[in-house]
Specification:
With 194 residues, the chain is α/β, with parallel strands linked by helices. The protein contains six helices and seven strands.
Length: 194
């Protein structure tokens, strides 16, 4: 079972943020879609996207994450992915065109060093760039982990960034357990069609 099916306490959530985000992505992704996995981790989201999209671009600053993802894709026979050893906040320098879906999974690399986490400033900047890269009708999913100090601060800044998105162009919803203060949660951003 995926580690992300459980919150900080180890109690299974009603529907994991991973499952919820993948369900939302499945509403809009097609075999012609171009997708971005903005934070590779161990490649679970990348593999999910590769199974459904025409092509996937994946980003991570950690070599270990790139290698783990490359191995997962090879074991499952997918080669429709381009991996970039680059921070997610520089995705627009690599991808000069709009895409259909973007997935973020913030925090630290599962099984890696917990001292290396996504950073609130670059994550908020990455989200701003994702909002420009996403096509009308496309969605951005965010998995936020607030069980550690950096994650809580990051989630607060990301929520503040989302509150300033123009309501005429974006809709945002949250899938969040209300009685588990440190459980992971999800935010879905949909860009309205022109």
């Amino acid at each position: 079972m995926d580690h992300r099916d459980y919150g900080v306490t180890g109690i299974r959530t009603m529907k994991s943020v991973t499952m919820f985000n993948q369900q939302e992505i499945s509403r809009v992704i097609t075999g012609d879609s171009i997708a971005i996995d903005a934070t590779l981790g161990n490649g679970h989201d990348t593999l999910f996207l590769a199974r459904k999209a025409k092509h996937v671009h994946g980003f991570d600053v950690q070599i270990e994450a790139l290698e783990n993802t490359k191995k997962r894709l090879k074991e499952n026979g997918f080669d429709n992915v381009t991996l970039h050893h680059e921070s997610h906040h520089k995705m627009d320098a690599v991808i000069p065109f709009q895409v259909d879906v973007i997935m973020f999974n913030f925090g630290y690399l599962p099984g890696g060093r917990k001292t290396i986490t996504t950073q609130k400033e670059t994550s908020a900047l990455a989200l701003e760039k994702a909002c420009k890269l996403i096509k009308p009708g496309g969605i951005i999913t965010l998995a936020l982990y607030i069980g550690h100090k950096e994650g809580a601060e990051e989630a607060a800044l990301i929520e503040e960034t989302i509150k300033h998105l123009p309501k005429s162009r974006f809709e945002a919803i949250s899938y969040k357990p209300l009685n588990k203060n440190s459980a992971p949660y999800s935010i879905i951003i949909e860009k309205r069609k022109d």
